[in-house]
């Protein structure tokens, strides 16, 4: 007979992932890559910075949204930039512990410095080729969904 406490401890926890990205191809590729992940996850995507904050703060249509365990954030978003979203998140006591992986087409030193000054957890330059993009996503998955202990 198995111990129910041991069974609960061994059950994988589903990771909630929010991607703020306005490029539908990047969203689709990320969704497909994470669907194949060995770690149970629920992937949600929003297309602009204002919508990302509404989701994170559970406002409006996102009133019942789950709190993400990880945010994948593009810097060049409409309505509110990724820089602004990151600043809002890290200044909000309810959101500041959520790890943020910035995925950007920019490799400008200014952007890298600014996101780390705002306490992003990592900065990843989006590769141009689909194959390289998938490889980068798998490395993010390996670290953030497998190796790292995410905050509760």
Category by helix and strand content: alpha/beta
Low-confidence stretches: 1-11
Largest sheet: 5 strands, parallel
Radius of gyration: 16 Å
What does this structure look like?
The protein has 152 residues and is α/β, with parallel strands linked by helices. It has one domain (4-146): 3-Layer(aba) Sandwich (Rossmann fold). It is built from 6 helices and 5 strands; from the N terminus they run H-E-H-E-H-E-H-E-H-E-H. A 5-stranded parallel β-sheet has the order 2-1-3-4-5, sandwiched between helices.
In short:
This protein has a single domain (4-146), classed as Rossmann fold (3-Layer(aba) Sandwich), CATH 3.40.50.2300. The chain has 6 helices and 5 strands. The protein has helices at 4-10, 24-35, 49-57, 82-90, 109-117, 130-147, and strands at residues 15-20, 41-46, 70-73, 100-104, 122-125.
List keywords for this structure.
152 residues, alpha/beta, Rossmann fold, five-stranded parallel sheet, 6 helices, 42% helix, disordered N terminus
Secondary structure topology:
Blueprint lengths: L3 H7 L4 E6 L3 H12 L5 E6 L2 H9 L12 E4 L8 H9 L9 E5 L4 H9 L4 E4 L4 H18 L5
Parallel strand pairs: 1-2, 1-3, 3-4, 4-5
Helix pairs in contact: 2-6, 3-4
């Amino acid at each position: 007979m198995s111990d129910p406490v041991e069974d609960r401890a061994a059950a994988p926890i589903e990771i909630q992932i929010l991607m703020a990205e306005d490029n539908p191809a990047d969203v689709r590729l990320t969704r497909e890559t994470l669907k194949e992940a060995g770690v149970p996850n629920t992937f949600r995507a929003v297309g602009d910075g204002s919508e990302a904050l509404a989701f994170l703060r559970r406002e409006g249509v996102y009133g019942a949204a789950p709190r993400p365990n990880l945010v994948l954030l593009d810097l060049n978003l409409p309505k509110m930039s990724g820089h602004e979203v990151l600043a809002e998140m890290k200044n909000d006591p309810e959101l500041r512990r959520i790890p943020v992986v910035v995925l950007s087409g920019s490799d400008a030193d200014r952007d890298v410095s600014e996101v780390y000054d705002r306490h992003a957890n990592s900065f990843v330059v989006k590769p141009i080729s689909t194959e390289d993009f998938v490889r980068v996503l798998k490395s993010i998955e390996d670290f953030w969904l497998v190796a790292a202990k995410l905050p509760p």
